[in-house]
Amino acid sequence: MSLLEIRNVTRRFGRLAAVDRVSLSVDAGEFFTLVGPSGCGKTTLLRMIAGFEEPDEGDLLLDGRPLAGIPPERRPVHTVFQSYALFPHMSVAENVAFPLQMAGTPARDIDGRVREALELVHLDDRAQHLPAQLSGGQKQRVALARALIGKPRLLLLDEPLAALDAKLREQITGELIALQRAVGISFVFVTHSQHEALALSHRLAVMNCGHVEQVGSPEEIYARPANRFVAGFIGTINLLPVEVREATPAALRLFAGGLGEIISTPQPGLCTGDRGTLALRPEQVRIIADGGDPMTENRARGSVRDCLYLGDVTVYRIAIAGGVVIEALLANRDPGVNRFLERDAPVIIGWARDSGVFLRD
Amino acid sequence: MVGRRRPGWLWVAAVGVYAFLYLPLAIVVILSFNDSLLNAEWVGFTTRWYVMLFEDRALLGAAANSLFIALVSATGATLLGTMAGLAMQRCRSGLLRGLPVLVFAPVAMPEILLGVSLLLFFRQVLDLTLGLLSILIAHVTFSIGFVAIVVRTSLAAMDESLFEAARDLGASAWQTFRHVTLPLIAPSVVAGFLMSFALSIDDFVITFFVAGVGVTTLPLQIYSMIKVAVSPEVNAVSTLLMALTLTLITVASRLAPAALRLRM
Question: Residues B219, B211: contact at Cβ < 8 Å?
Answer without folding.
Answer: no
